[in-house]
What we know:
It is a single chain. The chain is of the alpha+beta class. About 25% of the residues lie in helices and about 20% in strands. It has a seven-stranded mixed beta sheet with strand order 8-9-10-1-11-22-12, with helices on both faces. A four-stranded antiparallel beta sheet has the order 4-5-7-6, with helices on one face. Strands 14-21-13-20 form a four-stranded antiparallel beta sheet.
Amino acid sequence: MYQSTRFPARRPSARIRRPAAALCGLLLAGAGLSACDSGSAGAGVAGGSGGLTFATDTEPSCIDPAVSPLDVTALIDRNIFDSLVNASPDGKIHPWLAKSWSVSKDAKTYTFELRKGVTFHDGTPLDARAVKASLDHVVDPKTKSSYAAGLLSAYREAKAEGPSTVRIVLKRPDATLLQSLSTAYLGIQSPKALKNTAALCRTPVGTGPFRFVGWKQKQSIELKNNGGYKWAPPTAKHTGPAKLPSLTIRFIQENAVRVGALNSGEVDVIGGLPAPNVKTLKASPRLQVLSSQAPGGTYSVHLNPARGPLKDKRVRTAFLRAVDLDQLVKSVSFGQYDRAWSQLGPRTLGYDKEIEGSWAHDPKLADKLLDEAGWSQRDGEGYRVKDGKRLTVRWPFVPQLLREQRDILGQGIQAQAKKAGIQVKRDAKDTGTYSKQIFAGDADLWDSSNVRADPDVLRTLYASDQTLAKGGMNVFKISDPKIDAWLRHGAATADRAARADDYVKVQRRLRDEALVLPVYVPAYLVGASKDVKGLSFEAASYPLFYDVSLGDS
């Protein structure tokens, strides 16, 4: 999920989340961070491990994968938890904790045969009942899942048909199920640990290559090598235990401090590498830069068609055409991010290549459309007016939660819209006020990025049954029968070509109705010492540490 954004998709309609939980996912997608999870400080962190230290800009407040929607949660939990299946960056699904599976003719029942000999970090053996308990925890309303439950939106129940056979029964066909099950958010948890749900945020127990040791709040999380590990997925480069003796995740929010820690050798790897630092790090003889373009939803600004000037499609279209994204994205990201043409990223199934270039910067068209819409006069500051009112749209944001130069991008969009006579009021809010305002739909613009290795991310954002109140992220309550029909079919059919066609239609509809301003395609940028060998990225572009070694080890 919504690096941010993760980004976000996906809640069972029968298990509507409370507004507070929904807003966790909202903040994830809008800013890549969250202040919604709760939990007290955990155990202290052991030092001097001799392993690898990774620094990131975001600290989760809960690492129960069923609860937290943050991208940093998935990054951390991938080391602790394994999944039933594994997705490679090319989108293919491979065995993992499940050695095989079959699907019923009606596509409503998936039967998984589990690997034998797998144990959780607390010594509990993996069996079908453990898988059932883990999935039931995800969809339990008491869990208040902010993302994972939505990945199981079609889930009816899981049945243990024997020690190593688990059957997942769905309410409807769901072509996204295997991809969903491959994510860290649906990592399998120890049934013994699940008996104490209050402790899950702070003491995660999985079957992964690293086991949780401790958490020093606002500083770091310590993971130790799981010496008994021997069930890596076939996509890994080796088998057996991880190569690193330990993995420390440090939390350093300030970009300059994080980059400085890498330069000084205080840390081995940093995530969230600021784009302006890429060139310098690449020139260093002892440092390297790695990157992976994220799949799913691009960083985009959503337009509210239900109120104010943006109710007029001509005004929405003029706003899109007034912004020179080619120039803006290139300058702000120092060429590290590609300009986005669609709400869906190029790495995602169904990306519409033909949409590229179809709505380029066109200030003359923007002026023409605004004149036609009756906004032909300008006031003393150059803004357009009609019936004594200025053409103004409001864009709330939380300053502390901005990343990837999004504050500068927002200012650039604001400045370019002004040239067309549109006033964009960037309203800085605290997280509580922002959440209430967005949940009430009291905004004209809202921005998000939603990482997911499946185009079903569009359903989360635009299906009429995926509003915030119903557990989705359709903030402005878009209700378009055509979009709904394509998204329903795309989620249900297993035919990849048919799915791709559905999502192409959705992208074109979003463009034609001017409902979203795609800005850039997110990429996970990593700075690392050249002593770090074997670092790669999973399907959702989060760095993987299982195959990593330091130096020649």
